[in-house]
Design goal:
Number of strands: 8
CATH topology of one domain: Translation Initiation Factor IF3
CATH superfamily of one domain: Protein of unknown function (DUF541), domain 1
Structural class: alpha+beta
CATH architecture of one domain: 2-Layer Sandwich
Distance between the termini: 81 Å
Helix content: 25-40%
CATH class of one domain: Alpha Beta
Largest sheet: 5 strands, antiparallel
Oligomer: single chain
Shape: elongated
Radius of gyration: 37 Å
């Protein structure tokens, strides 16, 4: 038996079809809006470098004072006396107290291990306390490096941990600003040289990425431990040397034909 399709049923089908068409159009439109068109820009990416040989302007010397006594109080008292003598010897050279700092102070017990003859067990016995005090000198008077070492050791410092030459914070800023500009100029020069045979030129800049300015590690010149009963005198003058510092800048240039 043939079924007749009524007008309401036809209207319902038309509405469903129209809704599906509109939904498809809306999805296509949304996709078109969220998908960017491929860039038609012509670019060249270049990394420029700049290097400078810089003379250090900061001297950093680190001394250590180690003392050991039966009690912590005695060890600390003896260490403090040695520290005061070292500070006085260094400041007598014209080094201000602002250029001195205590970078480490530690107190810890010292044990002696032995075996009990009766039980044949190993045990520990407290024999005293050791105090370690570390003094750091930071000064722009580079020519006094040898004298600072001599005076400090002669006055009680029994360890010279490090002698290094580096750049002061202000000089680091000055060198950084100068090198970054030169690195960008170097990048531009490289791009121009590469584009010349291609009959293209730079017409703009799209992006610039500057590398982190990295300082080389300070140049260590001397480090040693000194016996308490030994007299120390630096046999060779301590000289600073220039440091090679470099930085980079990556630039994306917009280019066009001549």
């Amino acid at each position: 038996m043939n079924k007749q399709v009524t007008l309401p049923a036809i209207a319902g089908l038309i509405l469903v079809f129209a809704f599906a068409v509109n939904l498809t159009l809306a999805e296509n439109q949304a996709e078109a809006e969220t998908t960017p068109f491929p860039s038609r820009e012509k670019v060249i990416s270049v990394t420029g470098t700049a290097t400078a040989s810089v003379e250090p302007d900061l001297l950093v010397v680190t001394f250590g004072m180690e003392t050991q006594e039966k009690t912590a109080k005695e060890a600390l008292s003896k260490n403090s006396a040695s520290m005061n003598s070292v500070v006085d010897a260094i400041t007598s050279l014209g080094i201000s107290s602002d250029e001195l700092s205590t970078s480490r102070l530690s107190i810890y017990p010292v044990y002696d291990n032995y075996r009990d003859p009766q039980t044949e067990r190993y045990t520990q016995e407290l024999v005293g306390y050791r105090v370690t005090n570390t003094l750091t000198v930071e000064t722009t008077q580079l020519g006094k490096a040898a004298d600072i070492i001599d005076n400090a050791v002669s006055s009680g410092a029994n360890r010279v941990d490090n002698v290094a030459f580096t750049l002061s914070p202000q000089k680091q800023i000055d060198v950084k600003d100068d090198l970054l500009g030169k690195a960008v100029i170097n990048a531009k020069k490289k791009a121009e040289n590469a584009l010349a045979p291609l009959n293209h030129k730079i017409i703009g800049v799209k992006a610039v990425t500057l590398s982190e300015f990295g300082m080389p590690p300070p140049i260590p010149m001397y480090a040693t431990a000194i016996a308490e009963d030994a007299s120390f005198k630096s046999s060779t003058p301590v000289f600073s040397s220039d440091q090679d510092i470099s930085t980079t800048a990556s630039v994306i240039f917009l280019i066009g034909s001549n």
